[in-house]
């Protein structure tokens, strides 16, 4: 589970990773309420309930995998608004349980389904989260720390002590050690038999070989998404607006010593009734985009930040020419094999992974699916391989 927040109160209005900067004080925060307690719902509002204009220290756009912990951490010292275009997952069986995983991914619509289907320009179908918790509320719940090579090659000067504290913070709240049953045990044994060595047992670290990873589903099969991390927030300092669709970032020209530049001063968002709201930042405040790999660059483009020729072709006034916004998105290719077994298997999402030297990831799940008719069901396990770019 990973997403990249974006901040752009900077001269180059560039995409920056804010992992260690945002969570550097996470270890000093008080423990959250009991796991599974949706205490955060007391500061979650339908966007229709919020004023037409208000001011905040920080505005976080996108209440997903990155946006929820980001907003929760900032609220310890600042007044924060978190904007999410979807609703809440709490109480929705298909989102909260392993058994509902496939249904949540397949029951998609154009308007407000938690999973929003889309197809890439080269014809590959996919889905992204449209719910508080983002894709961590609809995915298979597998958790593992990043490959250390990611930090080394990212071009960002990471404070690895803060990174590790951030990992520990997330893991203590929403990550669990899974209990392997028939299918996942067979996958583990099969990977080792196929030579995906060594066996690293249970580990949250990125390790070449076969291992049992963490899961965001607890022992009862209940999902814990990044929305649970909102339980760390300071309730008096945070508002979370759901069904709030951000239309654009509001910019103003400033004249610092280094020359003129565009600065984010707020956002315009629309509620479900079609009413527009203006959320503005106070002096020295910031707007942060954590709307995902598709949503964040889309908002930048709609706000006039991006390649001049492209913006002009759509009639969008150019606020800042940046040739790389909306470019160079790469996703890992996936190959899947599905089989129907003659004997019943339990529901299981991804718990075991095989990681090869060339960066391929071998994972598997088993699910009950309708077959032939809704009254006729079969157990369908599947094996997937991912290759990192």
TrEMBL record:
UniProt-recorded Gene Ontology molecular function terms: flavin adenine dinucleotide binding; lyase activity; oxidoreductase activity, acting on CH-OH group of donors
High-level lineage: Eukaryota, Viridiplantae, Streptophyta, Embryophyta, Tracheophyta
Residue stretches in coiled coil: none
Top-rank taxon: Eukaryota
Nuclease in keyword set: no
Protein name: (R)-mandelonitrile lyase-like isoform X1
Domain Glucose-methanol-choline oxidoreductase N-terminal: 129-152, 292-306
Keywords attached to this entry: FAD, Flavoprotein, Lyase, Signal
SUPFAM superfamilies reported for this sequence: FAD/NAD(P)-binding domain
UniProt keyword Oxidoreductase, yes or no: no
Cofactor section: FAD
TM region positions: none
Signal peptide annotation: 1-28
Record InterPro entries: FAD/NAD-bd_sf, GMC_Oxidoreductase-Related, GMC_OxRdtase_N
Family (UniProt): Belongs to the GMC oxidoreductase family.
PANTHER family named in the record: (R)-MANDELONITRILE LYASE-LIKE, OSJNBA0019K04.7 PROTEIN
């Amino acid at each position: 589970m990973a997403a990249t927040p974006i901040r752009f109160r900077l001269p180059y209005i560039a995409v920056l990773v804010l992992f260690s900067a945002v969570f550097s004080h996470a270890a000093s925060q008080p423990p959250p309420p009991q796991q599974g307690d949706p205490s955060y719902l007391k500061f979650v509002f339908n966007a229709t309930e919020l004023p037409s204009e208000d001011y905040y220290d920080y505005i976080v756009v996108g209440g997903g995998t990155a946006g929820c912990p980001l907003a929760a951490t900032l609220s310890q010292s600042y007044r924060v608004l978190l904007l999410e275009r979807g609703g809440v997952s709490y109480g929705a069986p298909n989102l909260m349980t392993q058994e509902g995983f496939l249904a949540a991914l397949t029951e998609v619509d154009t308007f407000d389904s938690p999973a929003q289907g889309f197809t890439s320009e080269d014809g590959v179908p996919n889905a992204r989260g449209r719910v508080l918790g983002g894709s961590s509320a609809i995915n298979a719940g597998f958790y593992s720390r990043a490959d250390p090579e990611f930090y080394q090659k990212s071009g960002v000067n990471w404070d690895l002590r803060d990174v590790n504290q951030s990992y520990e913070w997330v893991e203590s709240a929403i990550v669990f050690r899974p209990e392997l049953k028939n299918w996942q045990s067979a996958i583990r044994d099969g990977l080792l038999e196929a030579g995906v060595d060594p066996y690293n047992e249970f580990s949250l670290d990125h390790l070449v070989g076969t291992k049992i990873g963490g899961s965001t589903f607890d022992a009862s099969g209940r999902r814990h998404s990044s929305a649970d991390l909102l339980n760390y927030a300071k309730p008096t300092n945070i508002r979370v607006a759901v069904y709030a669709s951000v239309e654009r970032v509001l910019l103003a020209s400033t004249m610092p010593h280094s020359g003129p530049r565009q600065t984010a001063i707020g956002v315009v968002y629309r509620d479900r009734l079609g009413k527009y709201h203006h959320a503005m930042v106070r002096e020295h405040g910031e707007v942060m985009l954590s709307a995902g790999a598709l949503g964040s660059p889309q908002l930048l483009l709609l706000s006039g930040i991006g390649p001049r020729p492209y913006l002009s072709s759509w009639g969008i006034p150019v606020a800042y020419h940046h040739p790389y916004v909306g470019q160079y998105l790469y996703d890992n290719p996936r190959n899947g094999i599905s089989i129907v077994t003659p004997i019943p298997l339990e529901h299981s999402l991804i718990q075991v992974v095989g990681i090869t030297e060339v960066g391929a990831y071998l994972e598997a799940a088993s699910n009950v699916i309708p077959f032939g008719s809704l009254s006729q069901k079969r157990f369908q396990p599947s094996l997937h391989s991912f290759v990192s770019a």
